[in-house]
Design brief:
disordered N terminus; disordered C terminus; two-stranded antiparallel sheet; single chain; alpha/beta
């Protein structure tokens, strides 16, 4: 049986990067601070406090990340504020696109050499970004590329936010064909377990949803935070007064199988995890999204669909079935479409709302962790480039 990872919800979780360097947290960035904190930081520099609002308006309101374009700041002020509050957090190492440019994935190198990924997805009615909250992941789910890599470190609040601001700027420039020019949704479903980096993820949610210039001004209802089932953190989230969507990565309805697929289940069993999810739904009135990766001959049996249906029937929940995006050399594979359709039929027959996730990004290593894994952690500056290829996949 897979060994259960050690969890420390407050840990900085620093380890070793893929190139052997010690992972370290980045320097402070304005997105790490609320507006009052930014004003105090600017005042410490000997600048007038209102400069914090100017810089914040550029970064969050106008999506300007380059200090050179913040021309309403005097050159001297711009230099000192840039050095103190606008360090470079993300360097694109590799960029790839598919779906005629509507899906774009970026591999970032952080200041210490850690690698993370995020994905921008354009639809006719919305633009969504999927962000990472950790470099790697310590949850050790065996079918997940990130879980296979292990945990390097938590991301800072600003490293999370900067992924979103970067892609919001891309959307504003009209790079997504046939999509709006404003980013509207954020899903914490990239690399890492968001609730294992609890404080920084919640701070990032507040930066993303606070109105400009304090934050990006997104709707809390358009933010999704996923978890494999860290029950204490789920209960803590219930008390935050947020209205984000909670997504529970369940992947199996029975403890015997989930102990292997999601090793944290050895600590918090299915019944306890679902109880925490229902507490969140009751407190917020928000429907819980149950994430379920369809794995051939592992968790796709009709009796498991029936068991899942019984567990969820009558609950404020929605099942999001995910066709597995296999990693190179993995023994895991996606369920055949007829099996998937029967699974859907049984859940709907039990009265459970069920959809199948759009299988975007398979041509560009779309599942979290795949692009970093495919580069073996040894990507060089010359590999930066854009590969545009069309995906011909069935979308449910």
């Amino acid at each position: 049986m897979t060994q259960l990872p050690v969890l420390n919800l407050a840990s900085t979780a620093t380890g070793t990067t893929s190139d052997g360097r010690r992972a370290t947290m980045p320097p402070r960035h304005l997105a790490d601070l609320d507006l009052a904190g930014r004003r105090a930081a600017v005042a410490e520099l000997g600048e007038q406090a209102f400069r914090a609002g100017q810089v914040s308006a550029h970064y969050f309101g106008r999506l300007i990340r380059d200090p050179a374009d913040m021309t309403d700041l005097p050159a001297r002020s711009r230099e000192s504020i840039t050095e103190a509050l606008l360090p470079t957090l993300l360097q694109p190492v590799r960029e790839m696109a598919t779906d005629d440019g509507a899906t774009r994935k970026t591999l970032w190198r952080l200041h210490d050499g850690s690698l993370v990924e995020s994905v921008l997805m354009g639809y006719p009615d919305r633009v969504t970004v999927c962000v990472s909250s950790q470099a790697g992941c310590g949850m050790a789910c065996p079918f997940c590329a990130t879980g296979q890599a292990g945990l390097t470190r938590n991301l800072s609040t600003a490293e999370i936010v900067d992924q979103v601001v970067w892609f919001a700027g891309m959307a504003a420039r009209g790079v997504l064909p046939g999509s709006p020019d404003r980013l509207s949704r954020v899903v914490f479903m990239g690399m890492g377990e968001p609730l294992a980096n609890y404080n920084r993820v919640i701070a990032a949610v507040r930066r993303l949803t606070d109105p400009a210039p304090e934050g990006l001004g997104l709707s809390q209802r358009h933010i999704t935070v996923s978890t494999v089932g860290l029950v204490p953190a789920m209960r803590r989230l219930t008390q935050e007064g947020l209205s984000v969507t909670l997504a529970l990565s369940l992947h199996a309805p029975d403890d015997d199988l989930r102990d292997t697929l999601v090793p944290v289940n050895q600590r918090w069993k299915v019944a306890e995890v679902l109880d925490a999810a229902w507490e969140y739904a009751a407190r917020t009135g928000r429907r819980v999204s149950i994430e379920y990766a369809m794995i051939r001959d592992v968790n796709d049996h009709p009796w498991r669909a029936d068991l899942l249906g019984r567990l969820l029937s009558g609950r404020l929940a929605h099942v999001n079935l995910i066709p597995l995006n296999p990693t190179p050399g993995s023994k895991w594979d996606a369920s055949p479409k007829p099996v998937e359709r029967e699974f859907v039929r049984r859940l709907r027959a039990a009265g459970v709302a069920t959809t199948v996730r759009d299988t975007r990004g398979r041509e560009i290593d779309g599942a979290c962790g795949q692009l970093a894994a495919s580069n073996g952690g040894k990507v060089g500056e010359r590999e930066t480039g854009l590969l545009a290829r069309r995906a011909n996949e069935e979308t449910q």
